Amino acid sequence: MDYSNYEIYDFDRVSAFHMTTGYKQRNYPMHWHSYGEILLVGPEGPNIYKVGKNTYQLIPDDLVLVWPMEMHEVVDADRENSLVIQFSNAFINSLFDLQRIMHLYRNLHVICVGAHPELAAKLKTVTLKMKDIFYSDRADKEIRCCMLLMEFMLLLDEYRKELAPELNEEEQYGYTDDVMRRMMQVSDYIKNNLTADDLSQAAMAEMAGISRDYFSRIFKNVTGMNYSKWLNMIRMEKASELLAQEGRTLTEIAMLSGFQSIPSFNRVFREEKGMAPGEYRALFAGAGKNKNPDAAE
To answer: To 10 degrees, the CA torsion angle through 19, 25, 30, 34?
Structure first.
């Protein structure tokens, strides 16, 4: 599976806010990350998304909310004309009110035009303002987009009574906010320290201040995969990003991605992508060195 199209953006290294569009491929496999996403559904149906265990068949201008560390999948949707807003979990953690809103709305994953026409229209307006600013040449576009993102969150809060029936669902996993915060901090640490000496499950559980068994159970419940598979996925994200760039040997890329040997790098890469790292790099060279050959940028 190719994770590079969707999960190579590193907010700790680049920005608190990002927006993408123009992906021609209509699906993307189940995955997760430590940042949140807001998707404005495109006009070309069908538009089918999955968040956690729930599948949603949506119409144009519906919105999908994916909170940090939630498993989600694009089953079949118009990715070419949809808008995807990506925001750092550090942004959410920067203000108590944003943390409160995320906690309140963590079980809400869609805003449907049919059910909430006024709110959906307002949120679409804010989203399109973000698009205009993000794709402009303004020097201050990041802070302006973050201001609009706060406006988006405040609109959700203003419609709390209307949304109340959809917010009273039982907690999906039952983990406290503090535990989830620790898990996000650990996942961010791993992404930024893939060459660290010890990224074992035991070491990361100790860093999170919880038992190894509890740490393992959270990973399985939240991501649908065990820790070692998740860690290989993160290493593959990094390797895919580096392979799309020039100037590094395959050995350097393997080491920078946290693989201890070329054989293990080649084995995991072939298992995930069905080809050797060198073959994958050749795809980018043949496509004008685009990071995403399927994207219309």
So the answer is: -20
pLDDT at 291 exceeding the cut of 50: no
What is the C-alpha separation between 226 and 209, in angstroms, rounded?
A: 19
Of the candidate CATH numbers 1.10.260.40, 1.10.1040.10, 3.10.20.90, 1.10.10.60, the domain formed by 177-286 belongs to 1.10.10.60
> Could you count the other beta carbons within 10 Å of the beta carbon of residue 80?
17
Query: Taking the CB of residue 122, how many other CB atoms lie within 10 A of it?
Result: 17
Q: Using the 8-state DSSP alphabet, how is residue 114 labeled? A: T
pLDDT in tens, 198-208: 999 999 999 99
Helices 141-158 and 96-105 cross at an angle (nearest 10°) of 50
- Beta carbons of 194 and 258 less than 8 angstroms apart: yes
* Per-residue pLDDT tens digits for 52-95: 889 999 999 999 999 887 889 999 999 999 999 999 877 776 67
d(CA 47, CA 58): 5
Side chain identity, residue 279: E
Task: Give the pLDDT of residue 93.
Answer: 66
Tell me the CATH architecture of domain 4-167.
Sandwich (2.60)
